[in-house]
Amino acid sequence: MSRGANQGLNLSASKAGVFDATANRSLFHLDQATLAYGQQTALASVSLSIHAGEKVALVGPSGAGKTSLLNVLYEQQREHIAWCPQHYGLVDILSVYHNIYMGQLERHSAPYNIWNLLFPIARHQQAIGQLASELGLGQKLDHSIDQLSGGQQQRVSIGRALYRNKAIFLGDEPVASLDPIQGEALLAKIIARHATVVIALHNRQMALSVFDRIIGIKGGRVVLDRPANAISHAELDRFYAQ
Length: 242
Ligand SMILES: Nc1ncnc2c1ncn2[C@@H]1O[C@H](COP(=O)(O)OP(=O)(O)OP(=O)(O)O)[C@@H](O)[C@H]1O
Hints:
Residues 28-236 form the ABC transporter domain. The chain is of the alpha/beta class. Helix content is 35%, strand content 23%.
């Protein structure tokens, strides 16, 4: 979210206190939140809470406000979040290894990070090698990002988020460039490794089968918020069609 995007932002943020992502408490709380980019309203009076342990799919047509909502949620708990943005945010000239390592950049000193850039440290090499293999990137560790396909780049972005090893995963279409089987397998991995998950996605089948709560957004407003098992495929199709 750009600085300018904060104009008009009216948030009631949850006060974190001692962080416990397993307790059944509200991790995210919006009370009549609004967000505008100049004259363009992206979120209009959004009120919602997301509790620790929830697995939430954000659905809605293109331009509905999903990315804007994720950005607002990210600002509420950023230090506890494994973040997988829509446009990956990878460094093209660096290797897969170094891009995944960036998930832990802030945990180490600048000299340590520079040393690892020049002479990869064994424990990171081992952990990242293992993670890359799980993501089907085992043979690509030394390749730079600009040598990868779109789907491979997306998997690096997931790898970087997983390497953060946080309790909350926020993702903006994190498996959109993958084939459905690979996408579902990676979603399962993401869900297994994070207590709380909020993911924007267009795949209705995955939204209903993998998540336990569906939040539907249109025109910057929450117009659907129900347990996934209380929504049918037909209803979700109608939500998109209307
Ligand atoms: N940087 C920006 N400057 C101006 N308007 C923006 C900007 N980013 C988003 N918007 C507008 O805000 C609204 C919500 O956009 P947002 O990216 O949150 O939608 P989205 O649901 O994530 O869409 P998509 O599924 O296409 O990614 C849209 O009308 C969009 O045009």
